[in-house]
Amino acid sequence: MKKRILLLIILLTLYVFVSFYCYSIKSLNNIEDKVFRLHIIANSDSEEDQNLKYKVKDNIISYMNNLCKDASSKEEAIKLAQKHIDDFKNIADFTILENDFNYTSNVEIGNYKFPTKYYGNIALPSGYYDALKIKLGSNSGQNWWCVLYPSLCFVDISSGTVPESSKEKLKGTLSNEEYALISEDTPTYNFKFKLVELFSNKFNLGQINNYN
Question: In the 8-state DSSP scheme, what is residue 119?
Fold first, then answer.
């Protein structure tokens, strides 16, 4: 009798583990499939290089938002970004030049490992995300991250919240379950997000897309 009970406990534990694991994979992959991110790496951690990073960021985001204002999916946004990748480099290089720096930028689109990032009251779990990556100079300074599609780059710094317009775009891109997973405004956020984070970090979950 004790052996049967022990076996049932083991089977139930395995069932719960596998269920949580599958839920984490599905949730993370679905989110990765629907967002296109921006990653800018500064030349160094000097105050001047860090300030330049933010100027490049502002110009890149302004151009991207105008370029993709009618995009209806991440795939469409990426295609537009790929088509205009030289423009992104020109914008970055011009911003560098007009601020009297003597290095250039390197711009690429690919699939990269991202850590957990918080955008106001929205959190994206760690995983592999498609992104526009801009390396400034020797790219040895601190990173700057945001989401280009749907745009979450305009977080209100003073209040630490994402504008309602950005939330609406995100809600329109993700399913109700996916949005509930990453939004602190929802009652299930804390438990489910930590669950996905646990499995993502423990088993290196996430899918890698090939842009070669």
Answer: E
SS (H, E, C) 170-182: HHHHCCHHHHHHH
36 strand-pairing partners: 149
Task: Walk along the chain (212 residues) in steps of 10 and give the mean pLDDT of each run.
Answer: 71 61 59 89 96 94 89 92 96 97 96 84 84 96 88 58 76 80 64 59 53 44
Query: How far is 89 from 87, CA to CA, in rounded Å?
Result: 5
Q: Which helix (H) or strand (E) holds 146?
A: strand 143-149
Residue pair 198/17 in contact (Cβ under 8 Å)? The answer is no
Strand partners of residue 136: 105
DSSP state of 156: B
DSSP 36: E
Strand partners, 107: 134
Q: Where are the domains of the chain?
A: 5-203
Query: What do you get for the CA distance between the two ends of the chain, in Å?
Result: 58
Q: Using alpha carbons only, what angle is made at residue 105 by residues 34 and 96, rounded to the nearest 5 degrees?
A: 115
* pLDDT at position 90: 97
Question: Per the structure block, which two tokens stand in for 52?
Answer: 């330049």
Residue 163, preceding bond cis, omega within 30 degrees?
no
CA 99 to chain centre: 28
